[in-house]
Structures are given as structure tokens and as C-alpha cells.
Amino acid sequence: MNARVAARRVHRKQAMANNDKPVPPPTPIERPPAPRPASEQPFDPMPARGPDAPESNEKVAALESFRDHPRGAVLTTDQGLPIAHTDDTLKAGVRGPSLLEDAHFREKITKFDHERIPERVVHARGAGAHGYFRLYEPLPELTRAAFLNDTSARTPVFVRFSTVVGSRGSADTVRDVRGFATRFYTREGNFDLVGNNMPVFFIQDGIKFPDVIHAVKPEPANEIPQAQSAHDTFWDFVSLVPESAHMVMWVMSDRAIPRSLRMMEGFGVHTFRMIAASGASVLVKFHWRPVLGAHSLVWDEAQKLAGKDPDFHRRDLWNAIETGAFPEYELGLQVMAEGDELRYGFDLLDPTKLVPEELVPVRRIGRMVLDRNPQSFFAEVEQVAFHLGNLVPGIEVTDDPLLQARLFSYLDTQLLRLGGPNFHEIPINRPLAPVANHQQDGFHRDTINVGTASYHPNSIGSGCPFLAGGAGFVHRREAVHGELTRRRSESFRDHFSQATLFVASQSPAERRHLIEALSFELGKVTRKPIRERMLGILREIDPGLAAAVSANIGVPVPTGPVQVPEGTSPPGPRGDNGGVVASRALSLEHQPRDSIATRKIAMLVADGFDGAAAARVHAELVRGRAIVEVVAPVLGPVTPESGAALEADKTLAAAASVLYDAVFVPGGAASVARLEQSGDAVHFLQEAFKHGKAIAAAGEAVELIVLAELGESVLAGEGAEVRDDVIVDHGLVTARGAAALPALAEAFCEAIAQHRHWQRNVDAVPA
Ligand code: HDE
After folding, report:
1. Ligand 1 centroid vs 221 CA: distance in angstroms?
2. Residue to mutate, 119, 120, 122, ligand 1, most ligand atoms under 8 Å from C-beta
3. Per residue in 208-224, pLDDT tens?
4. Quick check: helix, strand or coil at residue 694?
5. Residue of the nearest CA to atom 16 in ligand 1?
6. pLDDT per residue over 693-725, tens digit each?
7. Which residues contact ligand 1 via a Cβ below 6 A?
8. Mapped to the 3 state alphabet, what secondary structure does 456-500 carry?
């Protein structure tokens, strides 16, 4: 038995023996012990996790031979020379010049000078995690891919989430598309599913990618603005390129400001192909569905978060994994018959189109769990090199011209970014499947290829490595004919019908957000003709939307057909999207809202708070696996009216409502009186209210709600409900009497699970 497993068993026995001993009474609010950061944990390739632990992650284990645990080591140079002094350079005299002879100094500074590699030209800002994928049922009728036919396999994955536009140090919560790139380390080699959190793209042909990216990136003269689409060049481009209309709607929607990377859908975007062992092929679209549902921030909140916590998303992902709240996503497929490329009223090769789920439902085929943070951001997250061309037998590409361009770009970009052709040897990029070929040499080659024959065929090396035959990757049989042309297919010319479908599918609140986002962005465009041209596009999508935006940006909606520059594909006739005029899946309104797990709740208290109320509501929140933080005027112990003190996690000055999903204020006359004096506390509540968050107040704290001017208009408002002496008014939950606490706790949890309460009238609320 290996020593680690034995130690774990002893530990389990001790834990069982301890069960017989009397347990000390719990303090009113029990806190889980603070997790040890992953970086401090000894590496265990088979960590105990959950009921069916221990489970292993082969890829994480394979990284072990590259890890360096320098504990107890002596400081050395890169050559292994022990170093006795590293704080002063070697000088001629204590006040004299430094000497070239100081090899340690030169090595240290040279290494520092060369620490940076080029950031990704797009998707530079990212965060990653390890995990695994498990299949629900074999799919032999669809594909011969081994990992999609073996339900016993626990395929290791590495996922990198990203924003597209900003540079490496930009804020997480900007309005942008999110990258959702997954590598499956399968027995047949790496399969990379390099997708986004939106199912379509701005352009139809990859040759325009540099144009759209130059337009959205900071402007070349002054490198302003960072990580924003709200500037002239972006809107200039999209207003001249109507094929972008559908994607522009997604980017202006709430999808572009996700609440969490754990609450975000993923899409392969292009139509791919799956090939069964029989040779039969189908067309597929890939989907990732977060188990917690997809949820978003509010734009005002997203902007404030960019300042209060620019690492909001990566911190959220990191902390969730460290505390065992592992993000989970289901993999789904939409399967279309080969030959049905034009059946649905649009072209499946056109990446500006999605397949409405009313036409082709999503079949869920497996689940991915992210359960381990990386140990070195640089080694793993920065150096991971995804490539759309990393396919396995049974999964292939189609002729989508955006996809085809990507097949070139990813390998090309890695050559520069990772310094040469051997980036596949970087630990995070190594497949678990064995590698054997005659490729050799080049910068940063680690492998020592042994033998004389570095060519195929050979007899000297016994013919090695051998061809895989039927087990290898064999391209589908497909006849390709055609004349040389740069023309766009006629089937790609319907630029507006799916943009209209998207807008028609939004809930009233989402539509309002869309109008606000467009008004914000176009309001920042300084050139009037661009704003006007964009309104012409919006009019084609939805005249009501165009009129609403026009009213906000002071430019009339133009009349007449949309004009496009020469060489740009003009809009063609609208398709009918197979008769689908609104699609449920396109609205966040219909996402799962049944859990408060991992939601962050602020409990606002000061000395003299009602300890019993705090403990009651806290217990209910923790039961639902929410995370509660105590926010108080000062750090240190906060004393209740009676009972044990609580330790404050944050001060009102250091915290902000935008960092939380909901707020609870227990009563206690002294505590509430203190909070009433605090502008920060009042602002905290007003801002949370404005952002549609659940708020609960008990006992005297109801007065704080009234003071913050949330009560008078809302407590008696239309739609308010009274249950067991608890008033529930669009997510604002209040009760004065102690007897109502259980009902208040329950109603508060229900309100948090709803995510946001858009029905509130918040226009007049300051924040
Ligand atoms: Fe990418 N894209 N892309 N892209 N992309 C890159 O590759 C490119 C596109 C996506 O976390 C780059 O390694 C072209 C669509 C993700 O490391 C680069 C075109 C989709 C990531 C590149 C597209 C994506 C990238 C930059 C148009 C969604 C981050 C660094 C033909 C399906 C991967 C790198 C990571 C990264 C090129 C369009 C997703 C330059 C030419 C559509 C998630 O190669």
C-alpha cells in the first residue's frame, strides 16, 4: 500500500474513534477552517475528494516530474553553485563600481530581464484550472473518438477562460466575449475545444479577423481605451460590416458581463463533424452548460468591480476550487445530419448563425468538473497552447471559412509566443498519449531522441515508429470541387434574421439592458456618422430597439437601405430560421435558479447586533452552501447584544456591495444605530438594491432600509407578499418580530436563488 493511502486510512480511523468522544457545543456561528492555499499543500496526485475518492488526475500527476519543491534547499545559481550572499553586487570598494566578474549578478538580472513572453494577441487575460470529464453513455453511433465511447474513462482536462480584448493586466469584468478553451488529454492525443461563451462570431471569414480585432483593440495612436469596445474604431467597423449584427447583439447583452466563470455557457461556435467507426458522419455543435446556470452582472456593477477588484472572476474561480465548490459544466451536442447544411433556413457553415434549440435540441453527453487550481500561473495558464487543429479520430472540421483560418492561426501564433516549434514539450502541452515521430531539433528541444534513423521509411530503426493504420486519424472521404474564387456564398448573406431572433428572445429586463448597453457604447462614439450608421443597422434588427437607442444618443434613425462599402457582403434576404421567432435558450431568464450554493452574502453588523437573528439566518445560508462574510465598521471582534463575539471579515471601507450577491442586516438597536451613522453602510444597501440583489433586514434593521429610502417606496409596493409576518417585496425581505426569523431566512434564500430582481423601480435610487 502506498504511504499516502496508508496515512489517509490511519487518519480516517482516528476520525472514527473521535466520533465516540463528546462533541463541544457549537458557537452561535460556526466557520469552516480557512483552506490552505494550493501552493502550500504538498502535491498529492490522488487527492481525496468526495464520496468516491480517491480519484486521480493523470495529467496533474504527469506534471509532477517537472515540479520543483525548493523547501529546505540552499540558494544556488542556475549552474548549481551554492550562493552565500545575494543582496549586494560585487564591487571595487564598498562605494565603488560594480564588476563584470559578478556572474551571479549578471545571471540574476539577465533572467529577470527575460521573464516576459509576448502576451496572446487576443484572449491575453485569462485564468485556468485542471479537472476531468466523464461521459454519460457511449456514442458509437456518432463518433469513434475513444473518450466519447468509454464511460469508465476520467479524461483529464485543462480549461482556460479569458477575455478577448484586454491585455494581460486588464480587468476581469469588462464588457467582452469570454474565451472558454478546453483541452481533453485523451488516450488518442489532445483534443482542444477552443470556444467562447457566445455561440456566434463577428465575421464569417477568418481573413477579416485582423480587421475586427484592430478595430476593437485600443486605438493605435494612443493605445486608448483598454479592454473596451466603447470607442469609435469598433463601431466604425461593425457599422460597416452588417454580418457582425448578430454577434453585436450578444456582446451588448448581459452575456458579456458574466457573474462568474462558473456561471457561463460555452460554445464551440463552428459546426464540427463527427465520424463513427462505420465511416458515417454527422454535423455537430458543441455546448457547455454550467450546472449553476448562466448568470450575469449589472453593467454598473461590472464597471465598479473593475476598480474594486480587477481580479473578480479569477479570484472567484480560484476560491471556489480551493474551498471544494468545484465548478461543473455539462457537455452538450446538437447533432445534424450530414447534408443538412442548408436545411434550417441558414447555412450551418456560417459562424454568425446558431441552431435554435427548438429545431435541434441539445443532447447532454457528459460532465466536466474543475477540481484543481494550477500551481504556477506562468507554467500552466500562460504557456498552455490551444489549437483548433488538435483533433482526435472521430472528430473533424467543416468548411466554415472562419474555422479554416483558425486552423492556420493557432500553430502560427504559438511559434512566436512560446519561442519556437517545440512548445508541445512544455509540460502543460504534453499529451498523455505517447509521442513518436521524426520531428527533431529546434529551439528549446528537451527530448533526447535516441537512434540513427530520423526519417520514414527506414530499415535501420526497424521501421520505427510504425504507421497506426486503421487506429490512426484518417480524414473523411469527401469530394471537393470548385473554381478559385474569393466570393462569399449567397447562403451567407442573411445578416439580420438571427440578430432579430436574439432580440425577440430577450426578457423585458434583458431588452432594457441591451438598450442601455448600446446607448452607453454609442454614447461614447465621438463621430456622429458612425452613430447614425449603426442606428441604421439596429433598425434592420429591431425598429423599436433602434428608436429607444436613438432617443438616448441624440441621433435620428436613418431611413433607406443599409449601405456597405465596396467589397463587403451586402445584406441579402432574411431567412426564417426554420419558423423559430423566439428561442427560450437565448434568454438568461430561463436559466436554473434553484440554488444559493457559492453565492456570497454580506452580513452588515456593528457592536450590539442581534446574535440570535444573525445565527439563525447564517445557519440557513450555510445550509444552502452560500458563503457569508461579516462586514463591520472596523476589523476585529464584533460583540452582539448577548453571546459570543463575531470576527469581522471586512470593514465597510474595504468591502463593497458589488463584491456580494446579497446583503443581510440583523437587528440590535446599538448595531443599527451605528450603521445608520455610516454613509458606507447606507450606500452599501442602496447599491445592492439598485443592482437587483436580495436584501434581508430583521428587527431594528428594517429602519435602516427605510433610512436608505428603499422601504417607503418598496415595502408597500405592488407585488409585495406577506408571509408569516415577513414582507417579501421583489427580493427585499423584511421582518420586525423575532418569531418571523425562520420564515425570513427561508424567504431570503429563495430571493438569493432568483439571482436578481429586475422588477424593482430603481431609477430614483442613488448609488
Ligand atoms: Fe481565436 N485565437 N481566433 N477564436 N481564440 C487565439 O491563439 C483566431 C475565434 C479563442 O485560452 C489565438 O493561442 C483567428 C473564434 C479562444 O489560450 C490566435 C480567428 C473563437 C482563444 C487566435 C479566431 C475563438 C483564442 C491568440 C478567426 C471561438 C484563447 C493566442 C479566424 C470559437 C485560447 C492563441 C487560450 C486565441 C486566432 C476566432 C476562441 C491568434 C485567426 C471564432 C478561446 O491564434
Report:
1. 25
2. 122
3. 999 999 999 999 999 99
4. strand
5. 179
6. 999 999 999 999 999 988 654 455 667 889 889
7. 120-123, 126, 160, 162, 179, 181, 194-196, 201, 206, 209, 269, 384-386, 402, 405-406, 409-410, 413
8. CCCCCCCCCCCCCHHHCCCCCCCCCCCCCCCCCCHHHCCCCHHHH
Report the separation in Å between the CA atom of 122 and the middle of ligand 1, taken as the mean of its atom positions: 7
Neighbours of 335 (CB within 10 A): 17
**Ligand 1 centroid from CA 164, angstroms:** 9
What is the residue with the minimal CA distance to atom 23 of ligand 1? 406
Reply yes or no on whether 458 is catalytic.
no
Q: Rounded to whole angstroms, how far apart are CA atoms 550 and 532? A: 9
pLDDT at 436: 97
Q: Mind listing the pLDDT tens digit for each residue in 480-512?
A: 999 999 999 999 999 999 999 999 999 999 999
- For residue range 717-735, list pLDDT tens digits in order: 667 889 889 999 999 999 9
Q: At 7, is the pLDDT very low, low, confident or very high (cuts 50, 70, 90)?
A: very low
Q: 196 catalytic, yes or no? A: yes
Distances from the Cα of 560 to the Cαs of 497, 535, 536, 554, 758, in angstroms? Answer: 18, 12, 8, 19, 36
| Of 190, 196, 373, 429, catalytic | 196
Return the DSSP state at 120. Answer: P
Q: Which atom of ligand 1 is nearest to the CA of 413?
A: 44
Q: What per-residue confidence (pLDDT) applies to 1?
A: 38
Q: How far apart are CA 345 and CA 337, in angstroms?
A: 15
**Which grid cell sits at 140?**
458509437
Q: Which single residue is written with the C-alpha cell 444559493?
A: 596
pLDDT per position as a tens digit, 237-286: 999 999 999 999 999 999 999 999 999 999 999 999 999 999 999 999 99
Distance 166 CA to ligand 1 centre (A): 14
575-589 pLDDT, tens digit per residue, is 999 999 999 999 999
What letter would DSSP give residue 133? E
* Ligand 1 atom closest to 403 (CA): 31
The residue nearest atom 39 of ligand 1, judged by CA position, is 195
Cβ density class 439-460: b for 16+ within 10 Å, e for less: eeeeeeeeeeeeeeeeeeeeee
Looking only at the bridges linking them, the beta strands covering 726-729 and 732-735 are: antiparallel
